[in-house]
Amino acid sequence: MRALVFSRLYADPSQRQKLRELVGLGWSITVAIPGGGADMDGAIRLSPIPVSGSPAEPDRLRWSRRALRKLLTDARPDIVHIEEAPGTPGAWTAVREATRLGVPAVIFSWESLPRKRGFLERRRLTNTLSRVAGIIGGNRLALRLLQAEAPDALAISLPQTGVTPPSAVERRPGDMLTMACVGRLVPERGVDRLLHTCGQLMGPWRLFIAGTGPEQIGLEDLAEKLGLASRIRWLGPQSRAEVTALWDKVNCLVVPSRSTSEWVERYSQPLLDAMANEVAAVVTAEGALPELVGDAGIVVHADEELLVALQELLVDSERRTALGRAGRRRVLDQFVDAAIARDTDAFWRDVMARHPREARPIDP
Q1: pTM of the model as a whole
Q2: Which of 205, 216, 233, 359 is in Cβ range 3.0-4.6 Å of 102 for a Cys bridge?
Q3: Going from the N-terminus, what domains does the chain have, and what CATH number goes with each?
């Protein structure tokens, strides 16, 4: 089976593990990427498409229709998989040319909040989603937005790529609740609500805050006011490697986010990384956080519930350990690249069975 994947993401070799897993499942993968040179990554064929526009505005890039049509003709895919926002010129070009050749198209989107669109973007989105055979939301919020525009398309919720967990984890038991909070220090990340909650905990605890941002000075002042300064370490900006090293020092990750009209947690790499390292997860019921955690962590709906959850973990080390192990099992089962490739493979085959390849007319 042959698939043409259309996405600028895979210009980065480090992002291609899902594609390698799909090759292992029997797919011949060709990737259309913007510009660059033709290349092979193992069995993955990289095919550059000329683009016009500013690289600083990737969603506005215009992909060469002629080059994409030639690639489709040469690659003869059984399915076209598009990982560009459905209102972009690139997504519309890919769907248009796939439809012209009668190839079923699937589109992925992370967009998790409705927003106003200009006339041209709105028209592209409508035209694109009216022609796709399958839709993939990066989370359930994104999927619902896609389904509102493409109610008849086959649908599934899947992350774009997976996480890479450590091969093994050795946790050192400890009586103290040692927490981490990772992310940019802005109001929607909810660090203030975590500090207020920590001020009410009874027993030994410590908190590492990784990240920086405009709220840092105010949050440090709040910690001083609450008498918490000696228990908190402000780590500042952290690299990916530094955050990975943090998991050995903590036994609980708290994600206390709050949604706004313009922002929502659509995904959390630190959350999945922490779970993969058997760090117990406590998250608010915001955005995609509950579906990432599932029943392998604690989901709270109010500050009072956050206090109860953290107090429980503070006094019950066995509960922390059990949640950590459950979190790792969940990541290995659902959020590694092999699992995402497995579910993508099944979805592609369902789409192809429902939409066998046949030429269909399209407006010029």
Answers
A1: 0.92
A2: 359
A3: 2-161+337-354 (3.40.50.2000), 177-334 (3.40.50.2000)
